[in-house]
Amino acid sequence: MERQIKVLVTKIGLDGHDRGARVVASSFRNAGMEVIYTSPWQKIEDVVNITLQEDVDIVAISSLAYDHLIVPKLIEALQSEGLGDKKVLVGGIIPREDEEMLLNAGVKKIFHPGETLDSIVEYVENIMGKTSMK
Amino acid sequence: MEFLGIIEGIKSGNKRALARAITIVENNEENYLELVSKIYLSSGKAHIIGITGSPGTGKSTLVDRVASKLHMDGKSIAIIAIDPSSPFSNGAILGDRIRMSNSQKNPDIFVRSIASRGQVGGLSKSVGNITTLMDVFGYDCILIETVGSGQSEIEIMNLAHTTIVVTAPGLGDEIQAQKSGIMEIANLFVVNKADLPSAEMTANQIQQMLHTESVIKRKKVPVLLTSALEDKGIEDLIEKLEVRWDEINKTGERERIENAHATYKLTESLKEKFLSYIENEILNGAEWNDIFKQVMDRKINPEYAANHLFTRFLKKEADV
Ligand SMILES: Nc1nc2c(ncn2[C@@H]2O[C@H](COP(=O)(O)OP(=O)(O)OP(=O)(O)O)[C@@H](O)[C@H]2O)c(=O)[nH]1
Ligand SMILES: [Mg+2]
């Protein structure tokens, strides 16, 4: 039986605009993944807790208003709980000058506006070792 | 994490081990049967509570409030929240956590979201195994929120000691419930959204229907009003849960329930084994095509053909 990819799609920080997160979550679902979806404004410790309990493979953070700046803290918290193997992705409005900082902190990949949903899905399938069926 | 490490981890309260074990069971990974077999030996302590009812009646919100309150009372709590998988993509959006804000903020409450994966029967198998893992981990109460439709409502009865059926005013659920037989599986009836008008009326209608049934079946099912949104009626519900747990432990009812559970699990597992065996031995067997063609040509009736195939199969087995 094929193992299904499990993704957490969530938002941290103060911004509550979650349309983008919803669209991405639907794309993951349509590609056959199982998506844990939460309300926005999650605290770092909540995200760590969800990641641990749900044993997801991917933690996808949507950020439109500088919430990405706390992602390094999230990664640190994940690592200190022994969850360093989870792949953290960030999508949304991320200034180019912050990219390096995020990647150095351990973010696997950053998706900017204009990225197609297909390519996001494909990326996830690739890092999870599943070849796209298309 | 190594296999033995996982078993040790579960027994010593390592949540990561529990989470990993659930994934192994969910995906039928290589070692899953060995894992659950080992774990099963230490199981049988938790009160397993199923929560079912139509979509949108407030099951997740209610589970959240009940879990928080039970936790405050000193109980350790795990939640299994099941959402449907898409029949088209097999993917799922597991969104029950959105309504479980209290539990989500409380790291002592273990919440696991599960996709139904479109399996009939199979779902209760993996959920049953997950329940066992949580039980051995040491949770006092395990709350299972089902997909609020179809067969899962009836299936939950084969896993839970206590089944709560949740409804809300204005759904016309009262009539539907009577038709679908769901009244019969309820140990507790909850009319949620009691903050809305006509909740009382809904409760009365249900009470009346249950009254008729209880006369026949000699079973009394409490009907409670709650507002999960306003956190009202939760204490009453918890009291009823505790009374029931005490009662079924004292009266031997628990043994009767677990007897039914064991019967169900054992026969379902056997059926599964037989089915896959039959698939290999008969459906892929030499005679199948020939018999099938005769059925299609209306030379043999399907039931007769099945009898014939089965007799031949038994004879072949006896010869081996
Ligand atoms: N007025 C009112 N609304 C409620 C109450 N409980 C839940 N709701 C609302 O009802 C909607 C559905 O609640 P959920 O808890 O997601 O219901 P559910 O039965 O788990 O839904 P599914 O899992 O989708 O079947 C949400 O908008 C809740 O805020 C209540 O007591 N009163
Ligand atoms: Mg729900």
TrEMBL record, chain A:
Q: Does the keyword Transferase apply?
A: no
Top-level taxon of the source organism: Bacteria
Per its UniProt record, the required cofactor names are: adenosylcob(III)alamin
Which Pfam families does this entry report, sorted A to Z?
Answer: B12-binding
Segments forming domain B12-binding: 4-131
Q: EC number(s) in its UniProt entry?
A: 5.4.99.-
| Keywords on record | Cobalamin, Cobalt, Isomerase, Metal-binding
- Tell me which InterPro entries the record gives: Acid_CoA_mut_C, Cobalamin-bd, Cobalamin-bd_sf
Q: What class of enzyme is it?
A: isomerase
Q: Which GO terms describe its molecular function?
A: isomerase activity
Please identify the protein, giving its name as recorded. Answer: Pivalyl-CoA mutase small subunit
From TrEMBL, chain B:
Gene3D superfamilies assigned to the protein according to its UniProt record, in alphabetical order: P-loop containing nucleotide triphosphate hydrolases (3.40.50.300)
Q: Which UniProt keywords apply?
A: Chaperone, GTP-binding, Hydrolase, Nucleotide-binding
Claim: GTP-binding is one of the keywords in the record: yes
Looking up InterPro entries in the UniProt record yields: AAA+_ATPase, GTPase/Isobutyryl-CoA_mutase, GTPase_ArgK, P-loop_NTPase
User: What's the EC number here?
Assistant: 3.6.-.-
Residues annotated as domain AAA+ ATPase: 45-251
The question of whether Nucleotide-binding is a record keyword is answered with yes
| Top-level taxon of the source organism | Bacteria
* Coiled-coil regions, chain positions: none
- A GO molecular-function annotation: hydrolase activity
* Pfam families in alphabetical order: MeaB (PF03308)
Q: Say which family it is in.
A: Belongs to the SIMIBI class G3E GTPase family. ArgK/MeaB subfamily.
The protein's name is GTPase
Species this protein is from:
Neobacillus rhizosphaerae
